[in-house]
Amino acid sequence: MSLFKARDWWAAVLGEGEEFDQGCLCVGDVDNSGSGHDKIVVGSYMGMLRVFSPHPAKPGEPSPAHSQLLEVQLRDPVIQVEVGKFVSCSDLLHLAVLHPRKLSVYSVSGTAGNVEHGVQYQLKRVYEHNLQRTACNMTYGTFGGVTDHHSLCIQSMDGMLMFFEQESYSFGRFLPGFLLPGPLCYCSRTDTFLTVSSARQVESYKYETLAVATDAETRQDAEQHKLRADWTLVLGEQALDLSVPSFSPSSSSIFVCGERNLYCLKDNGHIRFMKKLEYNPSCFLPYSSVSEGTTNTLVGNHNNMLLVYQDVTLKWAAQLSCSPVAVRLANFPDLKGVVVTLSNEGHLQCSYMGTDPSFFSTPKVDAREQDYSQIDSEMKSLQRVIRQATRTQADILPVAETDEDLTVTATVSTNMDSTSVNTHTHTHTHTEMNTDVCVGSTTVVAFSAFLNGQYPPADLTGDVAVSYSSPTGIPRVAQCKFSLPLRLVCCPSAPSKNAKYKITVDTNKPPVNLSEVFPDFLEKSEDKEGNALAFHFLSGPRVTVLASKTSQRYRIQSESFEDIWLVAKELVQRFDRHFAKQGVKDFRNSFAGPIPLAEYFETVDHHFELRVSAEKYQDLLSERAVQFRAIQRRLLTRFKDKTPAPLQNLDTLMEGTYRQVIALADAAEENRACLNQAFVSLRSATHLLILLVSLWQGLNTEQNAILEATLLPLLQDTPQLGWEESVDAAVSHLLRTCLSRSPKDQALSLSTSQLSMPKDTVRLKKHITLLCDRLGKGGRLSLASEANVPMPVMMPGERGEECLCVSLSLSRSLSVSVCV
């Protein structure tokens, strides 16, 4: 509710079930009375045309119904009404009424009566124009500098501006790039037409440019001879209305009312000022201000408010009885500067700004003496309550109710089914299920995971997210993680002594029997002492683990560098669990180095080469497609020609181009499959590199998370953003911040340069090498010094590529959605 309320001076309700819009209201001396007093003209979509001369009813005078001068039922809906000099042989004001397919100009005249009934008003049609296109809105003015009479411009629904000079039709022009009609306005100072296009920009067209442009009967013809706007200004939002104030010849302002902003522009399209609105406006009207150099603006909104701005300063706010869709200022015999508003339901109101004095006074409160002894005792009792409540932290923490708790647990079965050996089986890595859970009950949701592809997966962990709603409607999410067994993707095999890639993991405890650590991989082990164990992946690669008999070292070797990752991770985790069961608290895994960067960079180069090949295939496909379409156009022209002409081997060229397109598409598809496999291999190699760096420098959980977010920022490659440029940007940021040589060299802000595919991987490999070098020299990964940088969001990696039954247990009383 506004602090102030608009004072009702005169009001009327127009009809029942009629609809009105911003163009259905105008004010002016339409009957040419010569008194300078305005009349209100209102048209409706139902075809009703009304003219009013408001004056407030006083005791003993006729009712406000006598304020209505004229009411006529027209055949067509009224879109817009305007008052101006629209007749060539007369200097009197006439009324222009715009219908969907017709423009009519009327004269309103009054005949003095001989009896007490007063003056009788008549509506007489002077001329009309039948439109070939459906009209949307119109504007009028002294087009081309003609000052004696007004011309009309109508905008059609298909983007054509139709110009009328009084009784004659001048010309029509199509607006370029038109999609939907917008507000239209004429600026007499510059002789230009202003509109807001569907591109959400203000466009200005000079009348001279429109007049000399080439005629076009259809939009296709207009596209060949496009008009050029004098200037444009991008708003970024759709405009509600346009207005060019004409109260002062020296003023040069163009006002645009947007959905969320009010703009004031200069005649050249530059912004004079802009006001951000905290509401949705419904109409607006600029008018003259008493302060020199400023302009007042009336803005109505859908909260039944009428606000007055002086430039960008809010000067007044008044409450209306309804939401206005049109607002005008008018001068009446009894009052000048009356605000005339019209709602979409036909509430016509004349009001003025003002307040009523309030006679309410606050009643006096009986004063009483304060009892300080009672206040002191109350204070001491409150302090005792506070001390008791703050003795333990648990007492002041909110305790969740039992019926608000949802417990999610993931249980992985230890039994493999027959599908686990089928490497051709595919499944989605993201699964959604809906289920209902009752109070105090447990619901089990079972699903399977199996190998997806002809290569080992990059990870065997999964995430379960359960989204549900509380009884009060608050959305909540519960999460848990699970790990799939290594046996899902590999089986035991005979150990091999020689391999191309080797990794050595050190421990601080005596060597253990591998048979005790891997009891589920003893089927084909020939080593009775437990010093060797081999893993045969279902996709083909083999990985061997060898335990030293004399030292505390374990060697992991394979013919593929990235395949070592899953076995190395499993070995480190099982060692931790094995010694934890024995009660050993100081057990630690380590890696003596050096970090195998050369082997890792081979995987990086292979992935980058496939990305380059994908771009080449894309370019070649584009060239061959353009060539194919050009040959098709040539052949079509030959076939349409009435005079037969030889094809000049165009058919042969077309067939050869088609074969090239098919061959390139097959090659691009094969390259894409190889790129997907290379990215999974790259993720596995990167996981292995992170594990080795963590064991090498003893990184904690937080530092390990930062390193993983830096080297694994993407779940998959896209043509727009690849792994190389993302990692290069992340590593460069660490080198400029927490891993910089000195605090003075630390960057204070993030780099905002756009990421693009690099020419080669030299810079990336240099930065990764520098990262490992500075970590080896004592550098520590931390985000504590980066106050302006948000913490990295750890997104779950690609899950899948496995085959096992996993069950979820849910205890909750709500309907939940399970996303795996």
TrEMBL record:
- The residue ranges of the PTHB1 N-terminal domain are 1-357
InterPro entries registered for this protein in UniProt? PHTB1_GAE_dom (IPR028074), PHTB1_N_dom (IPR028073), PTHB1 (IPR026511), PTHB1_CtH_dom (IPR055364), PTHB1_hp_dom (IPR055363), PTHB1_pf_dom (IPR055362)
- Per the record, the domain of life is Eukaryota
The organism is Hucho hucho
Per the record, a Pfam family? PTHB1_hp
Q: Name one GO biological process term.
A: cilium assembly
Q: Where is the PTHB1 hairpin domain?
A: 594-697
Which stretches make up the PTHB1 C-terminal helix bundle domain? 699-775
Residue intervals of the PTHB1 GAE domain = 433-482
> What PANTHER family does the database record attribute to this sequence?
PARATHYROID HORMONE-RESPONSIVE B1 GENE, PROTEIN PTHB1
Please identify the protein, giving its name as recorded: Bardet-Biedl syndrome 9
Residues forming the PTHB1 platform domain are: 485-592
